[in-house]
Write a structure and sequence with these properties.
By secondary structure, the protein is of the alpha/beta class. Helix content is about 30%, strand content about 15%. α8 runs parallel beside α9, α11 runs parallel beside α15 and α12 runs antiparallel to α13. The chain binds alpha-D-glucopyranose (GLC) and calcium ion. The site of calcium ion has 6 residues, from loops.
């Protein structure tokens, strides 16, 4: 891989700004709130922040529908606040990664406002239009609206096409109808995007997380996709994900923008992307992206209906196989990101762990962190994970805010699912699970706001909050902090390869991180709720007998632990070197 880049050694933290910290009492987190918490993040061991969109937006999809890429949404603050945040981060040697949402913009963006008025407007070709099924030309004004061009489904349910009467055409929206897809085949679109990227890079940001970037090129024939279970609109990513043209666009973006900022990093959000395809985005020779977020490990408990279905029981050997595929697949060919959640996912501690009872919740959160974040790659901690925040179960659908959740619920109920069953799915799978406000303290509204929060807090905040989790020695925050500092303090965590030591074991995750010079560290986790014993590999038993424990949960002062018989959710990170010696 050549020289180590800053982003390969950095610990990242993802902020969902609406829910992080409100400083003016309007119930919405803001930029000043982030600035105020920089010391908190620095102390936790964070080097860089991925900030979800803070651009001007009508908030149909909470900022992922951008009205003006050059403006900060007033509810988050001003451009002055943004400049101040960047300056304060620089002063702490921290980097800011912005969200780049350019598969689509808002229908309230000036481009679309102009585009929708007339087919002759120069901005018309900024979007993807079609006159309707089997038509080459728009039908006459006043004639009936033709059927949609094809059966593509929107990710937020219903058709991916919306009728625009003024031009007698449909426009494509893979997400909500207020998120028209941009036409990347138009060079003017690409140049406008590059210009905007330069604007932000020139401000001193360190790079971009690229929203659904593998969807930017669509099959120009816009064909129907094969029908499925009698569904009227069908999802089939083959027609818009990972197309060859996407790679060409990214290479152009690299040539025109990214290569001019050699220190900058990029991370692409890549749904539906297997490892061979992933390599093509991140191989340094291809000059596309620094890293990607792959999603295979997040589908581990998906039911047959996908994300919005009751989860099925997951199986650890399969999960490990997925993780191995990426660790081994990218080794020497690209760089992994490590993460267990984001603003679109239910909380991992509620998926793989146990959340009733303080002791087991804490142990589960730590076991998950150790299982995923100590492999090779750059770790991304999503806000609240460092205190073991859990899913929420609001008693009624009116408490939910997320468009994806609300559209799922409406459609499920109108298709005959009972309200209580639909709500149960929401409790387990909604994106709002990750979007309840950050729980800072046991004070009112968890210290997130002095006003009325835009979405209610998880009622468990008096128990689960930063204050408790950082003051108590067995708190989740205490553990995350140790883990992140440990990662940063020894290059083996960046450079060492990752070898699975227990691929078939149904409860244990055990891996070795090895350097070419023979140095090694071991991570052992019982990612289950039962005691377990196993045949400890000789080198590991040896390391345990003569070496030192770098990180453990529970600690030996909490409970007597051993490597052969592991307690539920036990974690041991072991170095073969006696304590005090450095590698
Ligand atoms: C990405 C974002 C998600 C958003 C969608 C459309 O998946 O992470 O929050 O709804 O793209 O922009
Ligand atoms: Ca605010």
């Amino acid at each position: 891989m050549g020289m180590t880049q800053w982003w390969q050694q950095a610990n990242f933290y993802q902020i969902y700004p609406r829910s992080f910290l409100d400083t003016n009492g309007d119930g919405i987190g803001d930029l000043k709130g982030i600035t105020r918490k920089l010391d908190y993040l620095k102390d936790l061991g964070i080097d860089a922040i991925w900030l979800c969109p803070v651009y001007d937006s009508p908030n149909d999809d909470n900022g992922y529908d951008i009205r003006d890429y050059y403006r900060v949404h007033q509810e988050f603050g001003s451009m002055k606040d943004m400049d101040h945040l960047i300056a304060e981060m620089n002063a702490r040697n921290m980097k800011l990664v912005m969200d780049l949402v350019v598969n689509h913009c808002s229908d309230e963006h000036e481009w679309f406002q102009k585009a929708r008025v007339s087919r002759d407007d120069p901005y018309h070709d900024y979007f993807i239009w079609h006159p309707g099924r089997n038509l080459d030309e728009p039908s006459a004004p006043g004639s009936p609206i033709p059927p949609e061009p094809n059966n593509w489904a929107s990710h937020f349910r219903g058709s991916a096409w919306e009728w625009n009467e003024a031009t007698r055409e449909y426009y494509l929206h893979l997400f909500s109808r207020k998120q028209p897809d941009l036409n990347w085949e138009n060079p003017a679109v690409r140049q406008d995007i590059y210009k905007m990227m330069r604007f932000w890079l020139d401000k001193g940001i360190a790079g971009f997380r690229m929203d659904v970037i593998n969807y930017i090129s669509k099959d120009p024939d816009l064909p129907d996709v094969p029908a499925r279970d009698g569904q009227r609109y069908v999802h089939d990513s083959r027609y818009y994900a990972n197309r060859e043209r996407t790679h060409e666009h990214l290479q152009e973006m690299h040539r025109e923008v990214l290569s001019k900022y050699p220190e900058c990093m990029t991370i692409g959000e890549m749904h539906q992307t297997p490892v061979d395809e992933g390599i093509r985005y991140v191989h340094p020779d291809r000059r596309e992206l620094s890293m990607i977020f792959q999603f295979e490990h997040l589908g581990i408990d998906n039911g047959p209906g996908g994300k919005y279905d009751l989860p099925v029981s997951w199986d650890l050997p399969r999960l490990k196989q997925t993780l191995r595929t990426w660790q081994e697949g990218l080794s020497g060919k690209g760089w992994n990101s490590l993460y267990t959640g984001n603003h679109d996912q239910p909380r991992m501690v509620s998926r793989l762990g146990v959340t009733d009872g303080k002791k087991m919740r804490r142990r589960s959160a730590k076991a998950i962190a150790a299982s995923f974040l100590l492999m090779q790659g750059s770790p991304f901690v999503y806000q609240g994970e460092e205190i073991g925040m859990t899913n929420v179960a609001f008693p009624d659908i009116d408490s939910y805010r997320d468009i994806e959740t609300l559209n799922y619920y409406r459609e499920a109920v109108s298709n005959g699912l009972s309200e209580s069953k639909a709500l149960r799915v929401v409790h387990l799978r909604s994106r709002d699970n990750a979007r309840t406000p950050m729980q800072w303290s046991p004070d009112a509204h968890g210290g997130f706001t002095t006003g009325v929060p835009w979405i209610s807090l998880n009622p468990n905040y008096p128990d689960i909050n930063v204050r408790n989790e950082s003051r108590e020695s067995d708190g989740v925050h205490t553990f995350y902090r140790s883990l992140l500092h440990m990662r940063r303090n020894d290059p083996i965590w960046t450079q060492g390869t990752c070898e699975d030591l227990a691929p078939e074991h149904p409860q244990i995750i055990a891996y070795a991180r090895r350097m070419e010079d023979g140095s090694v560290v071991y991570v052992v986790v019982n990612l289950s709720t039962r005691d377990t014993s196993w045949d400890v590999p000789a080198e590991l038993a040896d390391a345990c007998a003569n070496g030192s424990v770098l990180l453990a949960s529970p600690t030996s002062s909490e409970e007597e632990t051993s490597l052969t018989k592991l307690l539920p959710m036990q974690v041991m990170v072991i170095s073969p070197l006696p304590s005090g010696s450095t590698s």
